[in-house]
Amino acid sequence: MTSVQESTDSATDEEPAIEAPDPHRRPRGAMIVNPYSSGMTGKREREIVTTLREHMDLEVRRTERGGHAPKLARELMESGHLDVLISCGGDGTANEILNGMTLGNDTADDRPAFAIVPAGGTNVLARSIGYPNHPVRATAKLAEAIVERRTRRINLATVDERVFMFSAGVGLDGEIVKRMEQRRSGRRPSDMAHLSSIVGYYATQRFALGETMTVTVDGTGEQLRAALVLVGNTTPMTYMGRMPVHFMPDATLEGGLDFMAPSRANAGFAIRNATQAMGLGRKNNRLVSADKMRLRHDVSGFKIECDEPTPVQVDGEFIGERTHITFGLLERCIDLVV
């Protein structure tokens, strides 16, 4: 991990010097807590803070509303001298914090490492890198990883102005997240509520989604007409309870973007694809052919032009309806504590 040290020469405009990590010094960290996350209580927050402070110097900030975390992250970044910035909340909180860290290509050496205490409903990224799906149990492992400075230098994805960690969707996926947010009152809706919403949406479309957007792949210029687009920066893309869902099984945090852009998605396709993604059904044989999925692996970016405004979600958060959408990649932009 690295931290930023203030310049000793106030007469120059040089960037702050980068302090080499000292294995004998207690790590210096800050944690942004979302007290409204599904898995967070006052008692758990106290246990998490106590555990971390046994191993590191820790400053704690709490969000007061949605969209507050990026502001807190920017303030903490400007204060400098951090080895690690910790998100304590769900995937949405982690996403907001990363968007407040002003990331770009090759910025990992100039930023504190990033860590996650999984305190949300799904906790996709934290679970995918090996943490228990329980904030207090995960904190014990996280504290050990911070002290031992165990990190992976990763890439992150972008959609227009937003950074995202593990998944995005245009069309069906965005519509379902939009509907869930409209129904939401406090806690995260259940997996059954999501399934019900998917069935309901398919019913309104007569159980078949046709081509409504054009995807143009960077570098190759390949164009695809698609009914929906799912994008992955790692796998799994999400979880159904304890079961990981691998729509893009070859995606990695160190690689490029993977996406799926089927030209047509009827109810049968959706059921077979979801079954396959959860590792069920036939063994050693695909339930949905690669041709029908139109899966592309390890691309640097692509653009989508929709026939009409279409819902978009990133990391499980609805970001609006758009007609022109650009996906990109930030390479080697952050060190993730694992």
Topology of helices and strands:
Blueprint: E1 3-5, E2 17-19, E3 28-33, H1 42-53, E4 57-62, H2 69-79, E5 84-89, H3 91-99, E6 113-118, H4 124-128, H5 135-147, E7 151-159, E8 162-164, E9 167-170, H6 172-183, H7 191-204, E10 208-209, E11 213-217, E12 223-226, E13 229-232, E14 238-240, E15 243-245, E16 257-260, E17 265-266, H8 267-277, H9 290-293, E18 295-299, E19 302-314, E20 317-337
Parallel strand pairs: 3-4, 3-5, 5-6
Antiparallel strand pairs: 1-2, 7-8, 7-20, 9-13, 9-19, 10-17, 11-12, 11-19, 13-16, 14-15, 16-18, 19-20
Question: How is this structure best summarized?
Answer:
This protein is α+β, with helices and mostly antiparallel strands and 338 residues long. It has helices at 42-53, 69-79, 91-99, 124-128, 135-147, 172-183, 191-204, 267-277, 290-293; strands at 3-5, 17-19, 28-33, 57-62, 84-89, 113-118, 151-159, 162-164, 167-170, 208-209, 213-217, 223-226, 229-232, 238-240, 243-245, 257-260, 265-266, 295-299, 302-314, 317-337. The radius of gyration is 21 Å and the shape is globular.
Overall geometry comes to globular
Query: What is the CATH top level name of the largest domain?
Result: Mainly Beta
Radius of gyration: 21 Å
Range of strand content: 25-35%
CA distance, first residue to last residue: 12 Å
- Unreliable stretches (pLDDT < 50, length at least 5) are 2-18
Instruction: Please provide the ordered H/E string of secondary-structure elements.
Output: EEEHEHEHEHHEEEHHEEEEEEEEHHEEE
The average pLDDT value, as a whole number, equals: 87
Any idea of the CATH topology of the largest domain?
Answer: Tumour Suppressor Smad4
Structural class: alpha+beta
Overall tally of domains? 2
Helix content: 25-40%
Number of helices: 9
Number of strands: 20
Largest sheet: 10 strands, antiparallel
CATH architecture of the largest domain: Sandwich
